[in-house]
Every structure is written in C-alpha cells, then in structure tokens.
Amino acid sequence: MSVACGLECVFCLGCTRWAWKRLTYVGSYDSESWPPASDEEIEPIPRLCRAILAVYEDDLSHPRFPPPSGYGMNPQWLLKRVPYEETEGRCPPYLIYADHDHREIILAIRGLNLSRESDYKVLLDNRLGRQMFDGGYVHHGLLKAATFILNRESEMLRRVIGEVGDEYKLVFAGHSLGSGVAALMTVIVVNHRDQFGGIERRRIRCYAIAPARCMSLNLAVKYADVIYSVVLQDDFLPRTPTPLEHIFGSIFCLPCFLFLVCLRDTFIPESRKLNDPRRLYAPGRMYHIVERKFCRCGRFPPEVRTAIPIEGRFEHIVLSCNTTSDHALLWIERESQKIFDIRKEDAETTTAPTQQKMERKQTLEKEYKGALERAVTMNVPHAISLLEPTEDENDSAPSHSENQNGNHSKTDSKPGGRTNWDELVEKLFTRNESGNFVLRKDIGNIEGH
C-alpha cells in the first residue's frame, strides 16, 4: 500500500510540474535569447500590414475600415485588385501596388475568410508528406494557389519590373493563409528569376505576417535571406505543427484542440521533430514582437527580436487568452507601428551612434550562413550548407535552369510566350508508381552544387 501511495504521489507531482510549466509558459520565452531587430528591419512591417489590410477595401479612395494611421497608400499607384469573384476559388483576394516612395512592387494577399468555402478548400488540399518541392516538403494547396497567381500575374510583374528599373524590389506579403501563398510564391520566383528579367535575389522579399506552417525545416532555413516571418507574442498559428485543415476544422472548439496538441507535442523529443522531413514550419527568418511578460499586468513597450532558429522554432503552444487575438492583423500593425514610433523618438532624443547598415548586413549574412551550416550539422533532412554563389559570381556560375552538362533547359511556356507556372513547377519533381510527387534526382544534384 505504501509503495502504491508513493507512486501515486510521484505521478501527481509530475503532472503538477508539467501543468505548471505549460500554464506559465509565455510567448516571450521563445525568443528570449534572440538579439533585437534594427530600425531598418522593423520599418517595412507596419507598412506592409497596411498594404494587406487594403485588400479588404473596395475603394482605397474612400476606405471603410482604415487603420488609425491610415493606409498611407496612393490610390493612383494601385495597379490591380483581384476580388473573390475573379479568383475562381483558387486563392484568396490580392492586390498589386507600386510603392514609388519606397521603390517596391508589392503583391499583397489577404488572410483566411471564415465565411468562404473556397479558402477552406485551399487548406484542405493537403496531407502530410503529399507535396515534395525543391528538395523539401510544402503545403500542396498553398503551392497550387501560388502557381495560380503566378500564372495570372507574372506577365504584369515582369513588365512593371522592367519599367521601373533596377532600384525597385519585388515584395510579396500575406497574412495567415495568404502568408503561406506569398512564401511559396517567393520560393518559385527565386528559383526562376530569369522569368522576371533576371532580377537579383537580394531584390526579392517576402513578409509572412502571422505565418502558416507551409514548408519543411530545410526550406525554411534555405530561404531565410528572402522570407521574413512576423509573429506577435502568443500567436497560435506559427506554433501549431498540426495541419491547417485540422486547426480550422475545429475552430469552434479551438482552445480544447490547442490544449490536446500542446499535451501531445510535449512528449515528442526534439530530435524526432528535426528528423521528420515532412514536418512543416513557419518560413524564413523570424521576427518576434514581444509586449507582455510573465506575472506582469498590462502591455509593455513592445520590442522585436530576430533570429533564424533551427531547434525550438516556435514549437510550444502558449495557453493564454491572447493566443487567438495575437493572430489579428490589426494588432500586429498597431504593435509594430508602436515599436517604430518609439525607436524614432529615441533616435531624436539620444546622441548614441546607431548600428551601421553595412555592419548589420554583414551580421545578417553571417547568421544566415551559420544557420545553414547548423542545419547540416544537426542532420536536418535535405539541408544544404551552401545555397548558391554570391551576386558577383552569378554571371559566371550556372543557374538552376541548367542541366549537369551546362546546357540550358527549355522553359515551358504557353502560346505567345506566357510562362505556364504549373508546368514549370512540375519540372522540379516527377510522380512515382504510387502517384506521389518525388524530387527529380538531376535537379537535386544541381541544387547541391
């Protein structure tokens, strides 16, 4: 009897310890060792949040739901707006905007609409390990949505980029569901820059706001130099490894579902997570906005921390009342703008020298190369240590579209020279006897060099 009582006490203490650790875990713990982001890195975040919010408006000249600071967008610079009626249920609505003030061509994609069946179909078009692409796994439905938009808009983007000149960047931005589409569009465009007039990799950017888990870890690290994910404190979506269709299929009992996911993932070893090539992650470099602390009432002046994490990459669900509210685009825009305003005021009142842009750029490049090497040393499936030659070497080095003999492969195009992005994407993989997608061996060898 005494032995049974002792085991029962040990079991109760263990459960109490686990419950205490999980209930007291706050989102700020995920990035407590990360360095702060620079002013230059923070500045685009609230601006691109407003660009995504503008997708919800029917007329930018007479907005119905403007943010407190306004959209800050010139309606005359709006190149195209695509509502639900024109997307054929294949992707969320989006817009294309030429920001001449900041020299950017922006393609902004809105988030999930809970009242639209077509958005759920995009989420449901996936199962674990179904879609292999570019040496890793991606969400099948989001990849199809990305290729659909490129099929429609690549000609316009190519033409506009050619007209505005080499100083402009091509920026993809999306929130929630749209963040996954934007991230996978970026991956495709980076691998086929010749279809956009040979645009340099450094001129391509993606801002995934409240990002969905849409690609495997090796791809998330591989494209960390062009894809930036922005997470507000306790946001549940970047932390939930469960497929998106399960999350939104249980949206009406979400707190219970998140608790069960939290309980399950607590007992999965970190090594097992890293060694699963099908496990999806939030893409690219992470920017974590932190505004609350444990056992502290109210919100504090927010700060932004950044890193390219390998292990502990937002793996723990945060059980708090802000888990779902931190996913809202309006809150992310508000807090990121507050950070930028605070930084601006501090810069006007202090005489301390700021970090030089060149030094910051070198730091980011060093961290990016270190993350690639660490992914290899930790045996992350399909990870590579060297991505591609530098910009100065691009002219002499063979591109991704060349085969092993140095000959350029032909580009699949529609009549009239228009690129068929569905066919171009499928050139990267083939189907096996079971009908599943498998990465082509020759392309895998090219990427490894």
TrEMBL record:
Q: Which residues form the Mono-/di-acylglycerol lipase N-terminal domain?
A: 7-72
Q: Which residues form the Fungal lipase-type domain?
A: 107-242
Give the residue ranges for region: Disordered: 344-363, 390-420
Q: Write out the biased-composition intervals (Basic and acidic residues).
A: 409-420
Residue spans of biased composition, Polar residues class: 396-408
Q: Per its record, how is this protein called by name? A: Calmodulin-binding heat-shock protein
The organism is Dendrobium thyrsiflorum
